[in-house]
Amino acid sequence: MNKSIGIFDSGIGGLTTLKEIRRILPNEDYIYYADSKNNPFGEKSKKELDKIVHNIINELLKYNVKLIVIACNTVTTKFINTLRKDYPNILFVGVEPAIKVACDNDYKNILLMATPNTISSQRTKELINKNKKEKQNIYLLPCEGLANAIENNDKKRISRILNDNLNKYKNCNIDSIVLGCTHYPIIKNDIKKYFKTIKIVDGNKGTAKRVKHLLKESNLLNNKKEKGSIKFIQTR
Ligand code: DGL
User: From the CA of 15, how far away is ligand 1's center (Å)?
Assistant: First the structure.
């Protein structure tokens, strides 16, 4: 029997990742776990998050999934190595800030928007050290409250947070923004309005390609011809 791909986030943000994966793997079946009850992950302590994340993985494993996508930059940057050690037989693919993509495209002034936990992570520092060229600037912007406002579709709070955070970059010649949280592509058009010309990148495409590559390599691709299903589980 064909197994499903498990995918999770602190709510609806990871649906932006699921969309990219389904674009290139439409025949796969998916189980999407939206842990809205525990949103925001990006502002929780490591200890709290550790418990939450292990609970989610254990839930997904009940469905006998063949691979788990961490559709959350916060969990990927803080936990993917721990998870690989704790669950050595599970294939994990995570979304992380697309700093490499922005640097490889030679943008000069790059703004990284992400949760406080992602911004402060060791992995984000490594990605910058590895990819930033001498003439490039990377501005780090922890957007406290933004993922939660998006999760709750609180338009007033979203625009207040964007005003407070983005106005100060208006004169920095920002030419690209890395959306380092899977919730942020949902409000991409609102973010665009603060800049004249801007290129926006996120990690979802890279993650989708990696999922396909890993499944192919492991001989786990679904061989059915019809469109796959999505099972949606949400905590509240
Ligand atoms: N969407 C997640 C991320 O990419 C988590 C946001 C949050 O819950 O703070 O980081």
Answer: 12
Do 139 and 183 fall within a single domain? yes
**Known catalytic residue at 172:** no
Cut 0.85: pTM above it: yes
Domain of residue 134: give its range.
99-202
Same domain, 194 and 213: no
Pocket of ligand 1 contains residue 94 by CB under 6 Å: no
Q: Are residues 19 and 90 in the same domain?
A: yes
> Is 143 designated active site?
no
Instruction: For the chain, 236 residues long, give each residue's pLDDT as a single digit of tens.
Output: 789 999 999 999 999 999 999 999 999 999 999 999 999 999 999 999 999 999 999 999 999 999 999 999 999 999 999 999 999 999 999 999 999 999 999 999 999 999 999 999 999 999 999 999 999 999 999 999 999 999 999 999 999 999 999 999 988 999 999 999 999 999 999 999 999 999 999 999 999 999 999 999 999 999 889 999 999 999 99
Q: How far apart are the first and last CA of the chain?
A: 32
Q: Strand locations in the chain, DSSP E? A: 5-9, 30-34, 67-70, 92-94, 109-114, 137-142, 176-180, 199-202, 230-234
